[in-house]
Model the fold of this input.
Amino acid sequence: MKIDLISDTVTRPTSGMLDAMMSAKVGDDVFKSDPTVTILQEKAADLFGMEDALFFPSGTMANQTAIKLHTQPGDKLFCDKWAHVYNYEGGGAAFNSGVSCRLIDGDRGMFTAEQLKDASAGRADIHVPFSRLVCVENTTNKGGGACWDFEELKKIKQVCLDQNLDYHLDGARLFNALVVKNETPKQYGGLFDTISICLSKGLGAPVGSILLGSKEHIAKALRIRKLFGGAMRQVGFLAAAGIYSLDNNINRLAEDHQKAKNIEQVLNSLSYIKKVEPVETNIIIFYVKDHLNADDFITSMAKKNILLTPMGDGKIRIVTHLDFSKEMLEKLVYELKVFKE
Ligand SMILES: *Cc1c(COP(=O)(O)O)cnc(C)c1O
Done:
């Protein structure tokens, strides 16, 4: 039994999802004639109470399209120093949009409205890049699945309104936050100019992300997606998986969170563990004690068929997901407990 905890992207479509994919009605989506894609986009827009939505092959392309549609070359965006849009999208903000990132030194990937105000002070000065966009991430990836306080997100919105900044949410794992905090997609839809969500993470689809926004923003996004090479033909087969994931796999995220909590408890009880970051959703970040090396620990777990990710600076990451069964959890707990320092 292989236990792959590298990411919540490792899931395979279930038979129910495969059935939905196989029976999808398709057409050429570049000519807007794929009915299944249209249903998915309308469903997502309705769910968030936003005007329009567009299907993308990846979350990176959805975020990069958002950055491009909100900015002009030479502009600047604000994000946390750990933001995915800055750290893990290949330098796309600079490459695709000619935009620089003003990094904010937040806590677990989250900053405050006050920090944003400080970072944007002196913005009228013609020497500094023009401030155009704020990007936040919920849940935070490098921050270990931490969830934002919605009140803080509202305060940041006020700064955006005062300073004429657009507001983008990288919601690759937004549904994890919604489930834990008992929040609704519409709350977020009402706050942000654009939102990206991933269907291929906790929701279990094999491919796909969605960008949500106003009619005007999505019309721009459609052109940019074409330019980026992301306009796809009979893609209703994949959209069908997305529809299935929204219909079936949101509330069950609570099971992934429960399993992550169990793992957190076990890790905290082990003598060779130095620290476990507080677990809020489905991501666990922990450190082994100094005399053990993180990479060696990961290698010895891999020999037991348990796959974990190194996150740099001695951090080790576990991500729970749809394909991580109760039986696998038991085996993981057993191997963690019998591990010899
Ligand atoms: C996974 C992820 C993305 C997008 O990733 P893709 O692999 O391109 O789909 C964007 N933001 C965050 C926070 C992520 O975790």
Summary: The chain has two domains: 3-8+252-338, 15-248. The CA atoms of residues 101 and 129 lie 10 Å apart. The domain at 15-248 is CATH 3.40.640.10 (Aspartate Aminotransferase; domain 2). Residues 58-60, 63, 84, 137, 141, 170, 172, 198, 209 surround pyridoxal-5'-phosphate (CB under 6 Å).
